[in-house]
Amino acid sequence: MNFDYHALLPEIILASTVMLVLVTDLLPVKKYWAAVVGIIGTSAALVPLLTLTFCDSLDFCEATGARSMFSGTYVVDSFSLVLKGLFLVVALVVLLMSIGYLEGGRFWQGEYYFLLLASVLGAVVMASSRDFISMFVGLELVTGPTFLMAGWRKGDDRSNEAALKYFIIGVISAAILLFGISLVYGVTGQLRFADVAAAIAVRGESPLLTIGVIFTILGFAFKVSAAPFHFWTPDTYEGAPTPVTAYLAVGSKAAGFVGLLTVAYVAFGSTRGLWAGLIWVLAATSMTLGNVVALKQTNIVRMLGYSSIAQGGFMLVPFGALAGADVTPDMLQKAFFATVTYVLIYAAMNLGAFATIIAISNRIKSGEIRALAGLGVYAPGLAGLLAIFFFSLAGIPPVAGWFAKLAMFNSAIGSGSGWGLALAIIAALNAVVAFAYYGKIVKSAWFDAVPDDVSDAMKADTKVAPSLMLALGITFVGTIAFGVFPSLVTGLSEFASSLSSGL
Amino acid sequence: MSFGDWIGQLENWIFAILAVGTLSGAFLVVHSRNVIHSALGLVLTLGSSAGLFLMLGAEFVAWTLVMVYIGAVIVLFLFGIMITRAPLGYESDLSHPMSVKVTAAIVSGSMFALIGWAFLDAFGSVEFPVAEGPTRTADIGISMFTNYVIPFEVMSFLLLAALVGGIVLARQDPEEVDE
Of A59, A360, B8, B79, which is most buried by a Cβ count within 10 Å? Predict the structure, then answer.
């Protein structure tokens, strides 16, 4: 059996990094060296992604297009390259955010970095998985370590609650997903996505297949915290350490979407009728519920939790808009493109929002929205970043979020069906609601009076950890660049949409 | 096939015994008010399912079930109950109010009916070919280390992560570092 070592190099480097981090933790050096090793290793894993992407123009590289390995169960194509790149960059930013946070409290540090990178390894494997076994095991490696990381503040009851709730819901969703997969396997007799699609095309639909597809999609709906399967999200986001929350809201959610995209479009591509209506409902409820409840929140991380449920709803819109539509390959490509674009932009702006929140709460020692009032007076830099990331999440040009929303509306309206149009209208109404709560916080930060419990010492303390500064810088550049030059992100997501063109 | 033919075959008798074992064990698990009895009910269920797998020629799955679930997981349960000093004997507050029981019965009953109907619809009239002897465990091993080597490695990382994380959660927080 021949191994394509070049294609597997990102995974090999990342896996070695995971082990090296654990070894570094044993050495008699300062604990943050484990994070430094992690950062170097993750950056190194990005290099083979680049050489694989530009394989055609490199001398030493044998250009083969999509590289299919292990009898087609593991494929390195342009979709997986882009998403692997996304996961590695997310890992870098979360590592940078975590260093200062962990140094500031009584935490086990080396183990934390080990778990974070192990979870990222799972996400990277998922991006290439083209069969149910690899996909499921990859998803478990993504979520397994995050259960533990959510409970990393062991002395805090809310962190314990966060971990326990997330664990129980995560295990139930894994069971539902696995049950769905086993039914699909029972009906089709196949595990590889391409074979499942072929078997469904031959046998046609049956009630058992319908149940299998619905359970599989619902299993992923838990992972991307789509309403009504979202109830763990706010408590877990609020209780977990904030860098872990950032990883859950971006890395783990993006991994769920990778699974949903490949399963829905490749394995169940020919039975769109079964899942499009279901996802229509999930998208509509997630957007509405997430946004409406976010309006009333007083804790900023909890608010971002509801906001991330709503953003997940926006990402589901292109899937749901296919309901009742007379689908053409062009339309599928557009829907796929819209979701990938949204995921990429969401990663940049949401990580930025979390990094800003960490920087702010380091300073004012509070996670309440009330305490943010008057931030612009004594910390104009942080208040400015807060405004940029929140406006981006709300979808205001020229920051990145508007383009994500544009691609989403474009695909929803482009489906031409009444259902697609209705979903676009629901999304538009929700975008307005979302603007209300993002705007309220930004307004309060700039125009309201400083509350009394922000002491002068807090105002004078302008120190931001250099690693956090770097994380803010990366996400800031990403958010601005994607907004001003949308061609950057369209280039990436068009490249990634090759997966849907096979349908 | 009439019931008389069905009952006349030995393997159907074995199947019926194993099926009754599986179901009654499962019933004991959810119904017993004593945690230890629930755990032992699980042994009965898993043991009988292992028997069902053996009847299907799936040797590897059957013995994995016996070794991993009965041998390790249940023992872990019992150890867990012992170490956490959970109160042994009958618990009165394990019981749910009637409304919850009724809802649960309706939901699970309708799910059972739905899935059962879908199974009959899909496979009710299908005659499955009988496998020639048991599946060779060696074949499973070969496929695990060729086509499925990536999931295998991923699984190893998952177990390592669970091990490391479990130790951290059970351990005291580190001392404040003086700087």
Answer: A360
